[in-house]
Amino acid sequence: MVVGITISSPKSTILQNPISFKESNSSFLGGSLKGLSLPLKPRNKSRDNVGLVVAAARSTPSATSTDSTSLGRFYFNFTGFPFPLGPFLNRRTIRTEVVKGSIWLFEQEQALGFSSVSTNIRMTVIKLKTGGLWVHAPIAPTKECIQLVKELGAPVEYIILPTFAYEHKIFVGPFSRKFPRAQIWVAPRQWSWPLNLPLEFFGIFRAKTLKDEDLSTPWADEIEQKVLSSPEVGIGPYVEVAFYHKRSRTLLVTDAVIFVPRKPPQCISKESLLASAKNGLAVKLLSKGKEVPQEPVVDNPMNRQKGWERMVLQILFLGPSNLLEPNATFAQMSQKLIVSPIVKTLVFSKVPEKVRDWIDRIARDWRFKRIIPAHFDGPINAGGSEFLAAFAFLDDLLGEREFTWPSLSLIFTSLMGKAASYFPPDDMKTLSSLDQFLVSVGAVKKTVSGRKRAA
């Protein structure tokens, strides 16, 4: 999962129609570049993952498109500064049915620049009582992806950008051009860096703004929303909108929490996994002085698994203590509902009071039984107790909370959550050093709110 940066949304009347394929983009602490995005088509197979510990991740297979050898996966994307998001030419789409006739997940691979590090990016589609589709966090509109959406047999009515993050914003404009009658709704306080450009520059036109607990949205009877809109933690604010589909008791988030599966998502290619399994420069630097073998990487389940474990640790920690033998750290991070270390360190620890208010309102008002994030595994079988437990680190930042009588499940999951929010100090060194550097140069703030400040 990558934290991204995007743009403020002045409504321009100069540009009327999204004609150009060019889009400017930015990544977290990155910037904007002009790029070109052209769609075509991917396929999919169903997957069935089961995970226990603090929460369980599971998805129910559904029908997908035809054989995976057909065309339709081409999508040219070479944008994003300083790390453009791949794959640059080919994106496979996997569709999974979560709730029969009601909720579907669409997943594609997302690679970080020219590296071998990949994860998945997820779009969630909900069929409303009106018969139309509500699309959360669009992915690349390849021909395959669009065909898989059309196979649902319903019109796309609403397209939702639930965050300011670049890796989700980049696809909203191209996706909306495939469904020109759909309304576009975006998270508030959009921004981009190094140039703060209007949404129209990203190909996003006539967008409406999502508001906290807004009961006037066309979907309010079925889907509720709560906005996390923090003070600026650095060069811009962190904004994320959580949604609750009442009928299915499903919570949708973007980057707030993740559940790392033991096995790699199906959409990640074997080529990416094997490339990550190679003992390259990053492995040598983080080998703790051990001899690094240089044998060719054979395509087998063990090497694919090694590649996945290395990917996860590089995404979560930027530079874990040991990529040569990632198994132990991976075991601590996987199969748990957690807040990503990079989001926790660079964002949530800066605004603990805002985050606490947001997650408390979510757990108090919504009786969800599953969570669908935009990255890693999903859906996750988890409720409010597990969700709060993933944020147990906030208690340390905010000190003692007002005493209430907690439920036994909350006591148990809070204890589990303390373990889930613990990250090995050796693995946190690179991320902590980056945070200290960014604070020292003024790129991020030490804390924006909260009574306890880091030393």
UniProtKB/TrEMBL annotation:
Pfam families on file: DUF4336
Name this polypeptide is given: DUF4336 domain-containing protein
Annotated source species: Manihot esculenta
